[in-house]
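Reviewer 2 asked us to include a model.

Predict the structure of this chain.
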Amino acid sequence: MVVVVIIAIMAVIAVPLFSARFKAQRVLQVAGRIADLYRGSHTRALARGAATVVTLDVGTGTLQVLEGVQGTTAAKTNCANLPTQGCVTNNWGNVGTSSAVGNARVIEGISQQNVTTTMTLPGSSALTSGSVALCFSPGGRTFVNTAGAWTPDNWQPLTNVALVTISDPSNSPRTYNVVIMPNGTARLEATRLP
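Predicted model (structure tokens):
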């Protein structure tokens, strides 16, 4: 009977520790996936010669990756969409469908991940809501848009490091930063919460 009680006590102690560990691992996996999307979008822009945009819904962690294509709203025929190089001049809101050619097409994305995301841009405080779009040009430049509208005036060159912070403070002692450089490269960093 004593052995059963000791095992039960140890199980009660161990379950929360394992649960916290799994939750911390989930935050790391989400942060790694977000970093991969930014890195992959930059690489895709350079390799294909087409501008790519990563739109982050700050707070929910939902991301969508778009590739710029030449096209109109006319019905698609047997020709493929040609890439477009313009970050600033492309109408990123005109996303094509399976039957119509737009000025952008959805490449990939991730949906809400139940983590907290914030974005810090050069010269501003951390954004905790709204949408932030980063555009990677085939020439190696990065542009940022926080306005949500796709007019040329809303795009600004990224002149310093942008940070996407991913955390779940209620479940994990760590927070992760995706550091995006002005040249478009991105890396993942881990820090401890205070």
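The longest helix spans residues 2-48. The domain at 2-192 is CATH 3.55.40.10 (minor pseudopilin epsh fold). We have added this to the supplementary material.
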